[in-house]
Each structure stands twice: as C-alpha cells, then as structure tokens.
Amino acid sequence: MHGLVNKAIQSFVIDNYGATQWSAVVRVAHPGCTEFEAMWTYEDAITPRLLEASSDVLDRPYPELMEDIGAYLVSHPNLEPLRRLMRFGGMDFEDFLYSLDDLPDRARLAVADLELPRLDLRELGEGRYVLSCEGKIDGSGHLFLGLLRAMADDYGALVTLDHQGVQNGVEQVSITLLEAAFAEGREFELGVRA
Questions:
Q1: What are the two backbone dihedrals, phi and then psi, of residue 59, each rounded to the nearest 5 degrees?
Q2: 3-state secondary structure labels for all residues of the chain
Q3: Residue 30 CB: number of other CB atoms within 10 A?
Q4: ∠ CA(38), CA(40), CA(41), 5° rounding?
Q5: What is the pLDDT of residues 6-49, one digit of tens each?
C-alpha cells in the first residue's frame, strides 16, 4: 500500500485525537514502525490493521471512522493542497460529481503508484446519483461518503448522502443534490496566493 494512505491515517489520528492515541493504535496494529513516510510503499496488510486498531482504540464504529477520515482529507487545514486538487474537479458540486470517475487517473498523474478505489458515478435523474466504489480497503464507500459530505459543504450545496451497502465487493453511495447553491461555499481561487 502506498505510504500516503498510511500517513493519512496517522495524521488523522494525531490531528484529531493526539499522539498518545496514535501510540496506542501502533501498539494494537503492530505495523513494524511508529510513523509512516508518504512516499514509501508498505505491505497491503498493514493498512486494514491500522484502520481496525484505530476503530478499537478510538472506540469508533469502523464505518463512522472511515467517514470521518474522508471528511478530514478535504477539510483539515493541514491538507489544503488536497482540497484544492479536489476543487479542480468542477465549478460546482454537480461538476465535481461528474469528475469523480476520473479521480483515480488524475491522482496517478500526481503520484504514479497511488492506487485509489475505482469509482463509477451513475446519474438517476432529478439530482439523484449513485457512486460505486470498489477498492482494496473495506469501507471505501464510507470514506467517500465523508469526502462527499465535506465537499458539498465546501461548494455550499445541500445534499443527502447514504451508504447503500455492498454488492459483489462494490460499495454503493446514494447522492441526492437538493440545491446546488444552498449556502455560500468556501472561498476558492485557481491560483495560490504568495
């Protein structure tokens, strides 16, 4: 598994719960190290152990933990570059939704060996969509549910989101866009200020 994934879990736990809780996660998961390097590669089996240990240590149900990590990835101030990358997906939330199919390929342009879940957005009409998530890690759909919730807030869109379960290893997230311009979204400029 790419180090960025494990580093994101580490950062999530430390930023939200503290270094002491991260130390407890490491003791339970036995990953063979106490910190992760973003550009290294680690055994695939380490990541699920980190997530399960985080769920146990933080006393958070696994689906909620994954949703929180998804929201964290695009809303925490330390990860502003990732939020900016996601905002390049479109001018509004609906454009952003349509860009999700290409997200794994766009991520590989930035980090060649980063493997994201395969995403497939299907439009059902009248502002309703289903996002299919197929990844190596259980709970990828919950992670994207959290990410979508945070991005909807970022765009100022009013949406309802629901994890619809898993069929043949593919997680389904239902999305209903109720109002694209419900509130003022967070400020976003194409260029970075010096």
A1: 55, 45
A2: CEHHHHHHHHHHHHHHHCHHHHHHHHHHHCCCCCCCCCCCECCCCHHHHHHHHHHHHCCCCHHHHHHHHHHHHHHCHHHHHHHHHHHCCCCCHHHHHHHHHHHHHHHHHHCCCCCCCEEEEEEEECCEEEEEEECCCCCHHHHHHHHHHHHHHHHCCEEEEEEEEEECCEEEEEEEEEECCCCCCCCCCCCCCC
A3: 11
A4: 120
A5: 999 999 999 999 999 999 999 999 998 899 998 888 899 999 99
pLDDT digits (tens, 9 = 90+) for 178-192: 977 665 655 655 555
For residue 163, list its beta bridge partners: 173
Identity of residue 181:
A
Residue in the block written with tokens 């990590």: 69
CA pair distance 6, 73, nearest whole angstrom: 13
CA–CA dist 66, 139 (Å, integer): 6
Q: In Å, how far from its chain's centre is CA 186?
A: 18
158-167 and 170-179 beta bridge pairing: antiparallel
What b/e string do you get for 74-88 counting C-beta neighbours within 10 Å, with b at 16 or more?
bbbeebeebbeebbe
Specify the length of the chain in residues.
194
Q: What is the CA radius of gyration of the chain?
A: 17
Q: Which two tokens stand for residue 18?
A: 């503290």
